[in-house]
Design a protein that fits this description.
single chain; alpha/beta; TIM Barrel; nine-stranded parallel beta sheet; 11 helices; about 40% helix; binds 3-hydroxy-3-methylglutaryl-coenzyme A; binds magnesium ion
């Protein structure tokens, strides 16, 4: 498996949105800067959702406006509606991500409308964003299960993903929001969606609640997916999905990708250092495997390209 894999870093958004204590904008900015310096090239920076719903992201305009532009680094931002789109554009966004789910019950709690209502709401957002030259990603949450309704039909995931693609989303991220998936379910879901939306436009987004995220990614890599979301230090969860633990940790993902010979452009030691840094800033114990290793002690497996000190 020698291909390039694009890692979409979501820690500054999906990760920090879930922190109960306020994280100052300066810390968010430094996190994003450190991630870019470690080689991440797609960094979801913040979200322009309602500050009443997610107060942690109330400083989105400040964070985005103060981000230094680096050549080759993309900073998509999450947008729920037209109001969010306007705020994001005002703050200088060039890329956005819209989001819905394959479950009515989850959507009602997360965005206050059902799936049909959300698609109707997103249609003008995507159309206007595209007309104004923005790149657009679409998320489908609860792709492998819903915390409120339980089972989610694969056909519904396919339908929602296809609808987002039809609207004009250039990339669709399939989210196991509560980390219930296992590799075969992940592969079957991805395979079904890929019949409606070309694999090159699909990303996978696993939460590691039940320790399955890396195995799920591996199954999806074997299926041909080459875009994987992850969150430095395994930060995150979802404020409207009780019990959802963090995303797959970026540094654990990159360790596996390097061992598989996949090109990521990411400096693994530097990324692990960012994980240790943000854990210290947030007074958290490390949850990722790599962040628990002392600096300089990341040894790739014998087939990997790099060996540590
Ligand atoms: P609503 O209450 O139905 O919206 O919320 P509304 O249009 O009735 O507006 C209510 C108030 O919010 C109004 O203010 C609006 O101005 C304001 P008021 O008049 O009462 O003072 N408002 C806004 N303010 C700033 N920016 C905006 C905005 N929109 C409305 N964009 C809404 C509907 C969608 C806005 C709300 O439910 C919301 O913001 N939800 C976001 C929840 C969220 O961020 N969840 C986490 C992200 S999803 C996720 O993490 C999953 C993902 O990672 C993938 C995965 O893991 O599966 C993507
Ligand atoms: Mg998520």
């Amino acid at each position: 498996m020698k291909d390039a894999v694009r890692v979409v870093e979501v820690g500054a958004r999906d990760g920090l949105q879930n922190e109960a204590a306020h994280v100052p904008a300066a810390v968010k900015l430094e996190l994003i800067e450190r991630l870019a310096a470690a080689g991440l090239r797609t960094i979801e920076a913040t979200s322009f959702v309602s500050p009443r719903w997610v107060p942690q992201m109330a400083d989105a305009p400040e964070v985005l406006a103060r981000l230094p532009r680096r050549p080759g680094v993309r900073y998509p931002v999450l947008v729920p509606n037209l109001q969010g789109l306007e705020r994001a554009i005002q703050a200088g966004a060039r890329e956005i991500a819209v989001f819905t789910a394959a479950s009515d019950a989850f959507n009602r709690r997360n965005i206050n409308c059902d799936v049909a209502g959300s698609l109707a709401r997103l249609q003008p957002v995507v159309a206007q964003a595209r007309a104004r030259g923005l790149w657009v990603r679409g998320y489908v949450s609860t792709a492998l299960g819903c915390p409120y309704q339980g089972v989610v039909a694969v056909a519904e995931v396919v339908r929602v993903a296809a609808r987002l693609a039809e609207m004009g989303c250039e990339e669709i991220s399939l989210g196991d929001t509560i980390g219930v998936g296992t590799p075969r379910a992940a592969r079957d879901m991805l395979r079904a969606v890929a019949e409606a939306v070309p694999m090159a436009h699909l990303a996978v987004h696993f939460h590691d609640t039940r320790g399955q995220a890396l195995a799920n990614v591996y199954a999806c890599l074997e299926e041909g997916c080459r875009i994987v979301d992850a969150s430095v230090a395994g930060l995150g969860g979802c404020p409207y999905a009780a019990g959802a633990s963090g995303n797959l940790a970026s540094e654990d993902l990159v360790y596996m990708l390097q061992g598989l010979g996949c090109e990521t452009g990411i400096d693994l030691e530097a990324l692990a250092a960012v994980a240790r840094w943000i854990n210290a800033r947030l007074h958290r114990s490390p949850v990722s495997r790599l962040a628990r290793l002392p600096p300089g002690k990341i040894f790739l497996n014998p087939r990997g390209e790099r060996h540590g000190a």
